[in-house]
Amino acid sequence: MEQHPPHSAAASAPVTTGDAQAPYLALLARGASADAYEQPVLVARADGATSARVAALEDAKRLALRVRDEMEGRRRREAELSALFETAHDLAGLRDLDAVLQAIVQRARSLLGTDVAYLTLNDPPRGDTYMRVTEGSVAARFQQLRLGMGEGLGGLVAQTARPYVTANYGQDVRFQHTRTIDAGVQDEGLVAILGVPLMLGPHVIGVLFAADRRARVFEREQIALLGSFAALAAAAIDTANLLTETREALGELERANEIIRDRSGVIERASDVHDRLAELVLRGGGVHDVAAAVSQVLDGTVEFTDADTAPGEAVEGSRTEGHAVRRGDDWVAAVAAGGELLGALVLRGHPGLDPVDQRTLERAAMVTSLLLLARRSASEAEQRVRGELLDDLLDARDHDPRLLRERAARLHADLDATHVVLAARLEASGADAEQEAATRRRLWSAANHLAATRHGLAAARDGGTVLLLPLRSGTTASAVAAHVAKRLSAAIHETVTVGASAPVAHLAARTDTAAVAYAEARRCLDSLRLLGRAGEGAAAEDFGFLGLLLADSRDISGFVARTIGEVVTYDERRGTDLVRTLDAYFASGMSPARTKEALHVHVNTVAQRLERIGRLLGPDWQSPARSLEIQLALRLHRLAGPDMR
């Protein structure tokens, strides 16, 4: 029996437009992909549909795809308009330029569907353009790129103010490739790049980019869209610049107002300090009153310091320049009269001093110097009285001890206390007799000031100055001499050498004591100059055995104690024989072998004793100068008898 192929009812049914369009309407309704629109045609052919049926489906497919494309285009345009609207809204409420630019780049990347989007800005001072914002970038070198004008696609856009697009940047010969740019692009893996200029009027200020890591052709609508974002970015930058300029202008106005207010306050403070200083001068105030008044006006702590305690470099700079100078967080104004430095006013912890306040501090220093000069003039009579009293003591005149003590008490001096007599002399002569005399007067003035502050006496004598200063407990005559030499040299800025006597007491009762002590101080002074030790201060105890010749009292026990006292004390406390070992060592020509024969001990015993002696006397005890003093002390110790041991 003959068989016929099955005949489908659908295949034989008449074809209508509605039937052909129905499946595509369903696809449009659910937003199917473009590939899905091929399915109805394929199914119809598989079912053996007639050619008319297939043709109708093909027509319906083409119509449906056109509708789909139109709908997609509208949705895309709506998304683009929405993004542009949102960006414009961000721009209207601009608070943070970086945030707005970041939003523009993000939206451009999203709408164009690219892997990366980024924005560069021109740097006119350097003549290039640099990366400002990136989105989707993963390469650090790419994010830090700088492009010269005309270099790469971006450099060409920045130079020509025109959009440029490339489907494959690495193979595009239209651009000036550089190793740096190509390396950055390769690190990021970019292939297709679109760049549009950011324009402010006729000027290009940067470039906005969209880029893919695969070959791609950018459509005209996409170029236009990126251009719209670039316009918004340029407007954002312009707005931010205007806001910055406005803020700066407002800030400058505010600073100007602050300056005006501060200046007004400074002028008021200057007037206040002028009135206070005038009042102080009229009522005879002192330097510390001036410091207290200026402290209140300048809202800080102002202190007066003597010349020897003032910060050296700062005071010298202030005296040279004639102005207060800054030292760390402090200000220092020299208090000087003529060539003599009297001290300084120091404003503590006030680094930001206004110029008017600086002049106020300088004016206070000038008033301080006037007060000091006035006080000095008033005290010159007292100084002459001090000098006359010291002259009477040095000349050993026959005076009533009671009257001497009364005269000293009026000067706050105590002649029964232990004192040191010091002879001071300048080492440098002036260019002429007048200058030398002026320097000597300054030395005498400085010595008198020192004596007055130490409850002592001072007088000009024998072309120099002599001082009588009380010896404080725990202080030596040598230390006093060194201190006085330093103080006087610093006060008059000249080299002053000082010799001191041994301590003396009961000057009122024994009228010749001061004269004898002054002669000893003169001998020490002359010895210092002969030894080339100008500018130093010393007493007889500083000269070793030579001091025995310089000292009037011939302090033999003191010399022995200073030279070998440690060894003598060690023997007394421990019952050792170091003094005898030391004596035998020198008597044997400093030979340990001969020393052990003289002492009848083992050579190791001698070595151990000499090592102990070295620790007691110091490592240089065998040097020629020290060994000479030690041998003399040993002989004096031996001659002094058992009372010394």
Describe the structure.
The protein is an alpha+beta fold and 645 residues long. It has 22 helices and 15 strands. The chain has helices spanning 9-12, 17-30, 39-46, 51-92, 97-112, 140-143, 152-160, 179-188, 220-282, 287-298, 312-321, 355-394, 401-410, 433-453, 477-492, 513-530, 546-550, 556-574, 578-587, 592-599, 603-617, 624-640; strands at 116-123, 128-135, 146-148, 164-166, 192-200, 203-212, 301-306, 325-327, 330-337, 340-348, 419-426, 457-461, 464-470, 496-500, 537-539. The chain has a six-stranded antiparallel sheet, sandwiched between helices. Strands 12-13-11-14-15 form a five-stranded mixed sheet. A four-stranded antiparallel sheet has the order 7-10-9-8. Helix 9 (220-282) runs antiparallel to helix 10.
Properties at a glance:
alpha+beta; 645 residues; five-stranded mixed β-sheet; elongated; disordered N terminus; 15% strand; six-stranded antiparallel β-sheet; single chain
Distance between the termini: 161 Å
Categorize the overall geometry: elongated
The radius of gyration over CA amounts to 52 Å
Uncertain stretches of 5 or more adjacent residues: 1-12, 548-552
Q: What strand line-up does the widest sheet have?
A: 3-2-1-6-5-4
Bin the strand percentage.
5-15%
**Roughly what percent helix?**
55-70%
Count of DSSP-assigned helices: 22
* Average of per-residue pLDDT values: 79
Number of strands: 15
**Main sheet, how many strands, which sense, barrel?**
6 strands, antiparallel
Structural class: alpha+beta
What can be said about this structure in brief?
With 645 residues, this protein is α+β, with helices and mostly antiparallel strands. 58% of the residues lie in helices and 15% in strands.
